[in-house]
């Protein structure tokens, strides 16, 4: 019984990882590969001593919170929008926002505010051609994954209950993408594992 359960869990985990991994073999033209774009933008903002602001809704927001934490560990001035200690955005700064399905009213508004105050906007999305948020972006990271904008069609086509429903593929892809970004960015900034670890909180 236990061995069957372990086998089933391993099979499900493999399928989930395979689905997420497949996102990164999909073409993104005319947009640059999201990993390259994010690393380039973050190296640039670090070189000019700018700050990084991050925002996303729902589970997308949770992925961006995880990235924000690691950017801080890498020595960047990183802030979550709406935190009590978030400073004002200015010309040297970068807002990284996510709108997987293409548009959210809050993301639209925040990107517009960032642009109006001279900040640079990088938008993560799975709908770069139709989303309302793209018009505010200086750079677009196209993550070619299923979101709630197109999950209903996929569910109708599936012969069984989807393993990754709604926006789970996109959200999982963001987590994996951000882990790759952290690795490549650490290399680019010359941050040693000990230096990164030294910035982890001890208030826990």
Protein model, in words:
- The chain is α/β, with parallel strands linked by helices and 204 residues long.
- It has a five-stranded parallel beta sheet.
- The protein is built from seven helices and five strands, in the order ααβαββαββααα.
- Helix 2 crosses helix 6 (168-189) and helix 3 packs parallel to helix 6 (168-189).
- The protein is globular, with a radius of gyration of 18 Å.
- The chain is 49% helix and 12% strand.
- It has helices spanning 2-23, 34-47, 58-73, 105-116, 151-157, 168-189, 193-198; strands spanning 51-55, 77-80, 94-98, 120-125, 139-142.
Mean pLDDT value: 94
Strand residue percentage: 5-15%
Shape: globular
Q: Which H/E pattern describes the elements?
A: HHEHEEHEEHHH
Give the structural class.
alpha/beta
- Outline the low-pLDDT stretches: none
Q: Helical segment tally?
A: 7
Please give the order of strands in the largest beta sheet: 2-1-3-4-5
Would you report the number of β strands?
A: 5
Brief descriptors of the model:
204 residues, alpha/beta, five-stranded parallel beta sheet, 7 helices, 12% strand
């Amino acid at each position: 019984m236990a061995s069957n359960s372990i086998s089933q869990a391993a099979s499900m985990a493999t399928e989930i990882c395979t689905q997420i991994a497949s996102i990164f073999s999909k073409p993104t033209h005319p947009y640059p590969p999201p990993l390259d774009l994010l690393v380039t933008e973050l190296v640039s903002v670090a070189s000019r001593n700018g700050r990084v602001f991050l925002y996303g809704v729902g589970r997308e927001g949770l992925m961006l919170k995880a990235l924000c934490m690691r950017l801080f560990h890498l020595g960047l001035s990183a802030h979550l929008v709406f935190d009590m200690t978030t400073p004002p955005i200015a010309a040297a700064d970068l807002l990284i926002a996510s709108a997987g399905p293409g548009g959210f009213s809050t993301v639209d508004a925040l990107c517009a505010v960032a642009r109006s105050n001279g900040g640079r906007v990088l938008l993560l999305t799975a709908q770069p051609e139709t989303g309302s948020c793209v018009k505010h972006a200086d750079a677009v990271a196209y993550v070619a994954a299923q979101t709630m904008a197109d999950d209903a069609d996929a569910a109708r086509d599936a012969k069984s209950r989807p393993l990754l429903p709604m926006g789970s593929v996109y959200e999982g892809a963001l987590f994996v993408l951000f882990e790759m970004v952290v690795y490549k960015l650490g290399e680019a900034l010359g941050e040693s594992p000990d230096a990164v670890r030294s910035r982890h909180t001890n208030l826990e």
